[in-house]
Amino acid sequence: MRVKRVVLDNIRSYTHAEIDFPSGSILLSGNIGSGKSTILMAVEFALFGLKRSELSGASLLRNGADKGSVGVFLEIGGREITIGRALKRGSSSVSQEAGFIEENGGRKQLTAIEIKQRVLELLNYPKEALTKNEMLYRYTVYVSQEEMKQILLGDKEARLNALRQVFGIDRFRRVKENAKIVSSKAGERKKELLGSTSDLDAKKNLQASRAIELDSVLKELGEAEPKAEIAAKEAENARALLESLEQDIKKAAELRKELAVCEQKARLYEIQKANEEKELKRLGEKIKLNSSELISGKDFAKELSERRAKIRQVEAEMNAVSAKIHGLNARKNACGELKKKISMLDKCPACMQDVKEEHKQRIHSAEDEKLAEIEKEFNLHSGSEKALREAVSKINDELDLIYEEEKKELLAKASLKEAEEASRLKSSVEEKLKKAGDELLAATEKKEALIAGLAMYAELEKKHVEAKKALEASGSALRQVEIRKAQLEAKKEMALKAIEEIANEIKTKEELKKKLEKVSMLKEWLDYYFMQLADDMEKTVMAKAHSEFNLLLAKWFSMLVDNESVAIRLDTEFTPVIEQNGYEIDYGFLSGGEKTAAALAYRLALNQVVNNMMSDIQTKDIIILDEPTDGFSDEQLERMKRVLDELSIGQVIIVSHEQKIESFVENVIRFEKSGHESRIA
Q1: Lower Cβ count inside 10 Å, N or C end of the chain?
Q2: pLDDT at 419 > cutoff 70
Q3: What pLDDT is stored for residue 167 in this prediction?
């Protein structure tokens, strides 16, 4: 991997910066606090994202800014890679947003975790490195000198575990732990299998017992077969006899039915014959009755018409007389009214003169004369009216007599017509009577024949009852045989099923027994061979790493410290041991430059050992040294040039405020800070 360019927006003290990184050795120069370390933090953030305890969003995002971003342009394995990550300030914290990775011009938007996963793939780091806080990157590419000193002086067990992870040796420990888990599971499985196979012999004995039971059932079943056939044949014969008798019963029932029909017809023919004889007698009586002598030949319609005309004439005369009588009554009433008014009148209403009594008398006399004439005429007309009423009554009596004579003549004519009709129907009734007699005779003969035919079925019911009992007996016997046969078949199926189940159980248990043997062998192999092998491999690899680490540590320390009396070596726990004149001394008794030299030597040795052990990782050709010469004397600074020449790494990035180092490197990038803002000088 090689860093080619870094672009910052609102990152710590930078508002915007674009820094190009060439190959070879590069010095990031500037005063303390000018923003040099920010560049290294930004590169780590782009590769692996935020880490709560070490690299938080709040420590990266510029104060007062709501958003920020880092873009890093890399060359990895000959491919151009660009990684972009963004930060966003929320109400209570700073979080990272989705970013991108661009490979050979193709950009993909990814989540923070997806970017980290892809980076580890590109760097060809082991998959488990995703959960190791980028320890491999820290120990091979970039860690501050102060952090390395803390590693040297920290807890031995923590350091050893960290080195195991960096070297990839901790996988042997995981292998052993996993092997113990597998061995434990195998032990549990072995117990389960022992429990499952403990009754294998008992199952085999049970299988043999079930086989004996099956043979007994098959034997009894074989004896039941002929019995069933005999019982079935007897039942079939009884059924055939019963069916034959039932056919005869059916025929007898049909004869009885036919006899009943025949008897019914005979009764109907008898009734029909009697009815025809009765009808014939009635017709004879009608023929004898002849009413022709009662027919007078009168024209009753003419006589009735004449009488009705005469009545109308008399009624007209009577109406005229009644009208005259009515008029006379009116005149009579008028005279009475006039006399009454004159009697009561004192003055004339026309001339208003007094009416004298003589005048009243004259008027009364005149009116009385009129009344006498009216009364005479009234009596004359009343007598005429009475005579006319009597004439109408007489004519009505004559009409009633004519109506009676007409009615009698009509009845006589109807009787004559019925006699004629009876004469016409007599021959038809005689023919029907003859036919009814013939059919009655035929029905009677057929009835006698049917009665004779039924005589042969007299014993049929008794035979049917006997045959039915025989069928029930044979059916019962057959059912008993079939029930026993079914029971035996069920026993046979149950025995076969039980034998099959036992056989399957035996097969399963034998397979489990084979698995038990395999599990036992596996547990024994894990316990007595594999874990010992893992121990041996771990010791071998650790010993190789220790040997190489020890040589490289001594080499780099001797190059940085010009004091033959002081030497450094690793103990078995990879702790650096300082010796002076053959005696061990405490790390704290070293000078500041010697302490820095020990930390740097440890760092460089660790870098080489890891790169040698993991030849496929893509960070072998880059190293970042943060303030590697802190506390160095001028002589040690001169020795630093030899160290850089000896490294032979494609890109070495050094962060330092030591101006003398500028003469050791191929490229220098200067930084300055003004007004809380960093920039390239």
Answers
A1: C
A2: no
A3: 72
> 651: domain CATH number?
3.40.50.300
Find which of 242-246, 561-565, 594-598 is predicted with most confidence, using mean pLDDT: 594-598
Least confident span in 10-24, 135-149, 199-213: 135-149
Q: What is the CATH number of the domain that holds 353?
A: 1.10.287.510
Number of domains present in the structure of the chain: 2
Q: Is residue 262 packed enough to be buried (19+ CB in 10 Å), middle (13-18) or exposed (0-12)?
A: buried
Rounded-to-integer distance, Cα 23 and Cα 40, Å: 16
Question: Helix or strand or coil: residue 99?
Answer: strand
Contact 335, 374 (CB under 8 A): yes
Domain span holding position 634: 2-154+561-680
Asked whether 492 and 214 are in contact (CB, 8 A), the reply is yes
Domain boundary among 400, 431, 456: 456
* Degrees, nearest 5: CA angle 312-313-319: 85
Integer angstrom CA distances of residue 28 from 330, 655, 665, 667:
164, 5, 10, 9
Instruction: Give domain status of residue 93, yes or no.
Output: yes
- Phi, psi angle pair for 584, to nearest 5°: -75, 135
Q: Per-residue pLDDT tens for 614-646? A: 878 888 899 999 888 888 888 888 888 889 888
Asked if residue 392 belongs to a domain, the reply is yes
Residues 6+ apart with CB under 8 A from 211: 499
Q: Read off φ and ψ for residue 66, nearest 5 degrees.
A: -90, -25
Q: What is the band of 271 on the pLDDT scale with cuts at 50, 70, 90?
A: confident
Residue type at position 447: K
Per-residue b or e along 48-59, where b marks 16 or more CB atoms closer than 10 Å to that residue's CB: bbbeeeebebee
Averaged pLDDT, 234-242:
76
Burial of 2 (0-12, 13-18, 19+ CB in 10 A): middle
H or E segment at 487? helix 460-525
Does 475 fall in a domain?
no
pLDDT of residue 290: 56
